[in-house]
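Pasting two entries for a bug report.
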Amino acid sequence: MKKMLTALAVLAASACIFTGCSKKGAKAQGKVLNIYCWNEEFQTRFKDFFEASGKVPADVKVNWVMTPNQGNAYQNKLDEALLQQENAAADDKIDLFLVEADYALKYVDTPYTLDVKKDIGLTDADLANQYKYTKDIMTDSKGILKGVSWQACPGGFIYRRSFAKEVLGTDDPAQVQSMLSDWDKFDAAAAKMKDHGYFMLSGFDDSFRVFSDNIKSPWVVGNKINVDPSIKHWVDQTKMYTDKGYNNKANLWSAESGNGAKKNGKVFGYFGPGWFIDFCLAGWTKDDPDGPNAVGNGSYGDWAFCKGPQGFSWGGTWICGAAGSDNIQLIHDIMYTMTCDKDTMVAISNKTGDFTNNEVAMKEVATGSYTSAFLGGQNHLALFLDSAKSIDKSNMSPYDQGMAEKLQAAMADYYNGKVDEDTAWNNFYTAVLELYPNLTK
């Protein structure tokens, strides 16, 4: 993490050393398109909706540089390459790289990300239907847009239909929502699930993104660490859920968390956006990972979606053009097709269930014939429409990722009974001050 901060300082302090990167320039097209990312999500969409349409020039090789996120490996790899970008051979230079919401701001205010409009050539008209918050996140301090996304990420609560019928008397999303529409009702439902032998959530971190996305003040005010009341609510609720057996004591992304969704699993529901449903949860539910996405393969199809106690968003992936690229026209075409073109956005949603970053496209899908086999034939995308427009990321800061990771790690010891709450908070502050020595408690 310290390496990340060092690289960030270098990036932010650098002058713009690249020239000839404008779409209007006379640079010849490169022969290798280097794309830096951390998993296959964008790669799959790129291949299905851009490459399959014959839009990659025949003489261009697409080279995927994929480094997992774990241990900050992806950011370290990306930072190292960006710092070498000026002197790299043409075919080795980064052309496109992806960033996530938690650390997007790290790259926005640097000369290593191209101006989406001036350098790459997308217009206001091209970008008009994208959700505002997805552009706000990638807009620098001078008002320059530095990246675009194919997805918007409003979230909700994904629950087991069979458990809902047994415990709540119905699996209808509207009726279930009425029983989970605030945290008091959610807690009451958790008690009922426990009485029937089920866990309301899989573990400690499941609801974290709901609470953290509803903070009213940022993690850092001035140079002082600031813990919003919403975060304290998460701590109190998760401790109560742990002590009462309302969760399975699993950490997010652990095998235990995923196993709770299998046919014989006991977890009632998970919080998540469209990408979580398609890219994570659906796979966890299948007894045969390589088998069909169909009812009968594990618990696949025994799920439904509702808004839950609070609206929230989680994550998102943005495409950035790297300064120094010799594939500006191709970058333009990728960004336009994958994030601006309505027909492509509709196609992505219909195939993957992703809530894409185009309001017109999403209204079309929400009122159309789309159904999710995983969600028992439900068209859940209609439930995202209002929340997607109301997402507010004004409290985001460059510290969000580090704060979230250190808090979750410190509180896990508290939830597991290894330390008391005061010690857990002190451990959190100690870890944060080591990570960010410029801050104060």
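Entry 2 (this is the one that rendered wrong in the viewer):
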Amino acid sequence: MKKITVAIDGYSSTGKSTLAKQLAKELEYVYVDTGAMYRAVAYFAMQNKFIGADFFDKKALIDSLPKIVLEFKFNTDLGFAEMYLNSENVEKQIRTIEVSNFVSKVAEVSEVRSKLVEQQQEMGKNKAIVMDGRDIGTVVFPAAELKIFMTASAETRAQRRFDELQQKGDNVSYEEVLKNVVERDYIDTHREDSPLVIADDAVEIDNSYLNREEQFAAVLELVNEVIKTN
């Protein structure tokens, strides 16, 4: 069966990673969560005091980029790969609201994007990959055979993210999460380098009223159609 590249873009908290994991498992493809890569760099910046509530030393972060080694290591118990930063498993640390508050600012830095896009393109050179993020179909894999763009209302996405953080035991309010979602949307769509936009040939999916099973079934049908016609 022909192998293709599936590029999934969209706003924060639209379930891109969940869908991408489902597809990769079903197709036996490699799954890459590019958001985790940017989160890991943001976490590195936080740990090294390069970024905070009222400051961002971009030069210090750019100068430190050669010291940042990112790897995905497959966890057989979980059934998916986890993010490692300089040989440390940071999967849990990068999913906090604190990292969410800074990740879009870090992702604005052109030097950061350049470093990560190069790595992402290398990961997908042999196809048979499902990758999700903000610029996969427009920058990383503009020739991807299937491009999906996911969206939902800010309120719906904030509620999903709030529920997820509550289940993890994080002490956050819905208002705080909604504020983060709205701010990230603005930064992601207004940055100069690779802003979040829908590719001309992408299939847009508003999943405000879709459950995971309905969404997966619809996208899997799209994948199978593309595989048959390519």
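Dev reply: Rendering is fixed now. As a check, the viewer should reflect this: The CA atoms of residues 33 and 159 lie 22 Å apart.
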